[in-house]
Amino acid sequence: MNDAARRGGVLAFDFGIKRIGVAVGEWETRVAHPLVTVHGDANDARFARIAALIEEWRPIELVVGLPLHMDGREHDLTRRARRFANQLHGRFRLPVTLVDERLSSFAADLHLREAGVAGHLRKGRDDALAAQAILQDHFDHADLAAAHA
User: Taking the CA atoms of the chain, what radius of gyration do you get in angstroms?
Assistant: First the structure.
């Protein structure tokens, strides 16, 4: 995406089988904020909630965290996240960018621990914070990625 097109909002997703963390940010400020966690196993219900978020925030781009092993190898959740990204693109016809999410969930959990949030209260809250970390990483490294494209 060139600089002229980088005006507007972005929604980011930390994909999980039971929960999807969502964050929002604007290209103008390049600051990501945790938004919400979408719960549930039913695909239709999850995509209905995502459709409502897209309608509300009207993003110009979607970002999906790509889970990888620490050595960069892919695993089952990597393939599921790629499929989720493809479904987002197919349903909403918005550009979707995959972003390496290694350690984003760990960083989110650490942030909540440091804030004094008890273990049972962290579950579910850390997903939106992980999405925030994914989106912030996308904003922070977008110029670098464009230079190498």
Answer: 15
User: How distant is the alpha carbon of residue 17 from its chain centre?
Assistant: 14
Say which residues have a Cβ less than 8 Å from residue 107's Cβ, sequence separation at least 6: 129, 130, 133
pTM given for the model = 0.82
Assign a CATH topology to domain 3-148.
Nucleotidyltransferase; domain 5 (3.30.420)
- Number of separate helices (H) and strands (E) present in the chain: 5, 5
Q: What percent of the chain has pLDDT over 90?
A: 61
- Average pLDDT over the chain reads 84
What are the extents of the domains in the chain?
A: 3-148
Q: Are 139 and 32 in contact (CB under 8 A)?
A: yes
